Amino acid sequence: xxxxxxxxxxxxxxKLALGLDRTLPPGALAVVCNTGDDFQxxxxxxxxxxxxVIYTLAGIANKETGWGRAxxxxxxxxxxxxxxxxxxFQLGDADLALHVERTRRLALGETLxxxxxxxxxxxxxxxxxxxMSDQPVRTRVQTSEGILPFQHYFVKRRxxxxxxxxxxxxxxxxxxxxxxAELLTGDRLKAxxxxxxxxxxxIDPILALPGLRxxxxxxxxxxxxxxxxxxxxxxxxxxxxxxxxxxxxxxTASIARHYGELIDVLVVDHSDDTELPATGAQILRTATLMHxxxxxxxxxxxxxxxxxxxxx
Length: 312
Ligand code: FO1
Description:
The chain is of the alpha/beta class. The protein is globular.
């Protein structure tokens, strides 16, 4: 029975999802994945954050890049490039199979939730992996070069354009995925964990779903967020650059303010001595940097121990 609901984007979030998956018994964890990064490319339906979580929990993720599969081959991409095809978004040969199969099933009318569940079971993942919505939500980045589709900003332009803001196209017409909504309206959750993904591009699309914040409040389960910023630096990706461009100090205090009253606990690294605003959130200080699998397990254990104390 699901007792921990984790909200995750790609790389950073998937690391904690792995720690939780390996610490909790099968069936206790559900990971809700951002789909704002999804896009149609070369005729395929691509869901990068779902795939990063799935490959990570299945133990077949590419540890160097953080996305795609380990031990990948690139015959398809090389042949495509030779033909003058679009090769800016790298699709490995084995990774390609997932995009082909997802696209086939979507064309048959299956939902992204159903397809994702078939795939995670096929890869023997014990935890549930759930898209945030079965309806399309597309993050677009307002930049100094105009409004860019997410993957054009993130991959094609390598996050270079200065960020002004974000749009989550379609979010107002989207619903939380049925299983996501079911877990939020149930009374079994011990906690909702906001993984250390980029708050702006990975977590905010999920929180922007109609009624989501209210559903979190109504559920009553404590919301625990892990800061993706440590001592003025972002652990991964463009988070720090984005915060500077958005005029936000690159500090855990900005993260605390960003999540505000939504969270009950903010998890901050031992080494971070930032003065934190009084948002009402409890502060849990521990080691939040995850390099090794042992780090991921240790952080998951710390968070779950904290959750237990909140139950009493
Ligand atoms: N990120 C890159 O920087 N370059 C790529 O060529 C690339 C390909 C790719 C293929 C499949 C996939 O699931 C993810 C991929 N990513 C790539 C990462 C992706 O852009 C990001 O993981 C998310 O969208 C942000 O978390």
